[in-house]
Design brief:
Elements: E1 6-9, E2 14-17, E3 27-31, E4 35-40, E5 45-49, E6 76-78, E7 81-83, E8 99-102, E9 105-107
Antiparallel strand pairs: 1-2, 2-8, 3-4, 4-5, 6-7, 8-9
């Protein structure tokens, strides 16, 4: 099966997302018994302690729209170009895009 959005890297046991324009966010769940974080392939997500609805640490609209906003935002300025390490929130057009979701981690390789 050919995917329009990415592929499985069997050797590294990761799903590699190759475009920020998937119809829905690809989410990776990270956490332990009490603390959890969710991160999407575009850098959206949120953190919570024990209860996702009542004990959020970062802003998120629970079960509502927008589905892929929130999280912590970082911006990088290179001259007049401003971009983010992940696609959101700057949404700067990129030459290449890659997000790697593995077990217990998410990478945005440069």
């Amino acid at each position: 099966m050919i995917s329009l959005f990415g592929h499985f890297d069997d050797k590294r046991k990761e799903y590699v997302i190759e475009t920020p324009f998937a119809p829905l966010p690809w989410i990776n769940y990270l956490g332990d018994e009490d603390f959890f974080g969710l991160i999407s392939n575009t850098g959206g997500g949120y953190d919570f302690y024990k209860d996702a609805k009542l004990r959020r640490i970062t802003r998120y609209r629970y079960n509502n729209v927008p589905t892929d906003n929130g999280g912590r935002c970082f911006y990088i300025a290179d001259g007049k170009t401003v971009f983010s390490p992940a696609f959101l929130p700057a949404k700067t057009e990129l030459d290449r895009y890659e997000c790697r979701h593995g077990l217990g981690y998410t990478l945005f390789p440069a």
